[in-house]
Design a protein that fits this description.
Number of helices: 17
Structural class: alpha/beta
Strand order of the largest sheet: 6-8-7-9-10-11-12-14-13
Number of strands: 14
Helix content: 40-55%
Length: 409
């Protein structure tokens, strides 16, 4: 099994010299504790590692946080900290008493709950960073960087590696991007993902929602996965599963809080009043999505009815994670109005809005960017756009439209 370097490592190394508390959140098995241990090893700092999966340590942390930190003195790394939220108040007091930078290294798999706890107890004292599964850049060992519309950025990326072919892209989608799979630790994908779902429901979902029916929740996850890269329709999901809409909303919230799904919200402003209101739903990991929707080979997926859906989910997820890995909230939206004009991704940054169209084709045309002009009505100037597709080389259709191979993301 090999360790795969994470794009977030340099960021963590720099903020550890400034913040007393570093909190890494994210879903199970994305490599949170492994990454922190690797960062600490490179810093040559001896540190105790405690996991609250250990029931004795968990009980002590929950009942006597002060004693916990006498037994496990800082600097200390606490894994699965969501099991003992009582630690946060004690950490706050220790930071206020002068705990130096790099004293507390925390990981946890209930993203929004931990961010809420950190915001309440450790505002201004903790650096909170969400980690997702691996990006293409990480799995291929390429130089990290947030998604860009700069030509030199893509020329440099193309000089580092050739774009993955369509077949290789769909193979990557079926395999997914979990470190345990890509590092070679696990080779049987069906067994890995079935165990992942079972563990997630037993440990995370039941902690968030109580004693849910495991089979019904697994079926719910399949219904959600089948609607990725679509506008959220809670009623349709609830009907599929046979539950009330309110329960479906609560269960969707658990998936989002656990880092399994995320949303792109519609882009709108005062000049764009006819936009739809519903967000679009995406899965962080295409491998989990493929397993839930019963796609087992890249050949059948590429030829199947969901090929375009998987391509869109893959591209949006890669761009989304490129921002997360720099500690920046992804400025990603989508556009759809009541006239059915749609733009897959709208990125707002540096005083401009940038439209992106996602296509499975290897031969994009300018007609595919027809909807981009609706952003000219926006109060913010429209910047350079792009078509992300299965092209074999980076290029451009005109001065304002790049052609970016999905295999270079």
């Amino acid at each position: 099994m090999r360790y795969i370097d994470r794009s977030m490592e340099p960021l963590i190394g720099s903020i550890a010299d400034e913040f007393s508390v570093i909190l890494i959140t994210g879903p199970r098995q994305v490599g949170k504790s492994t990454m922190l241990e690797h960062v600490l090893e490179k810093r040559h700092e001896p540190i105790e590692v405690v996991t609250l999966d250990n029931l004795t340590d968990r009980q002590l942390a929950a009942t006597d946080p002060a004693m916990f930190f006498q037994v496990h003195r800082p600097p200390v790394m606490v894994d699965e900290v969501q099991y003992a939220p009582e630690l946060f108040s004690e950490i706050k007091m220790m930071v206020d008493r002068g705990a130096p930078p790099g004293s507390f290294w925390l990981t946890g798999s209930q993203q929004f709950k931990l961010m809420e706890l950190a915001g309440e107890s450790l505002a201004g004292r903790a650096a909170v960073l969400p980690l997702s599964s691996l990006t293409q850049v990480e799995s291929l060992g390429l130089a990290p960087g947030v998604f860009s519309f700069d030509i030199d950025f893509w020329k440099q990326r193309e000089a580092e590696t050739r774009p993955r072919s369509v077949t290789e892209l769909f193979s990557a989608m079926v395999t997914g991007s979990m470190p345990g799979v890509l590092s070679g630790k696990y080779s049987n994908l069906p067994v890995f993902y079935e165990n992942y779902i079972r563990t997630y429901i037993e440990r995370d979902v039941r902690r968030l929602l109580g004693n849910v029916d495991a089979l019904q929740y697994a079926y719910f996850m399949r219904a959600v996965a089948a609607r990725c890269a679509q506008m959220l329709n809670v009623a349709a999901i609830a009907e599929d599963v046979g539950i009330r809409q309110e329960k479906a909303k609560t269960w969707l919230s658990a998936l989002e809080r656990s880092g399994i799904i995320f949303y792109l919200h519609p882009y709108s402003n005062n000049q764009l009043k006819r936009t739809v209101k519903a967000p679009k739903l995406y899965c962080h990991d295409c491998g989990l999505m493929a397993h839930l929707t019963r796609w087992t080979s890249p050949e059948t997926m590429e030829a199947g009815a969901m090929a375009g859906t998987f391509m869109e989910n893959f591209v949006v997820s890669e761009i989304y994670k490129s921002y997360l890995n720099t500690g920046v909230e992804p400025p990603l939206y989508y556009y759809r109005d009541r006239n059915a004009k749609e733009i897959d991704i709208v990125i707002e940054c540096d005083g401009e809005v940038h439209p992106i169209e996602i296509k499975k084709t290897a031969s994009p045309t300018l007609s595919m960017t027809r909807s981009f002009s609706v952003l000219d009505k926006s109060a913010i100037p429209r910047g350079r756009g792009a078509i992300i597709c299965a092209a074999e080389k980076f290029g451009a259709l005109d001065a304002n439209t790049l052609v970016i191979p999905a295999g270079l993301l």
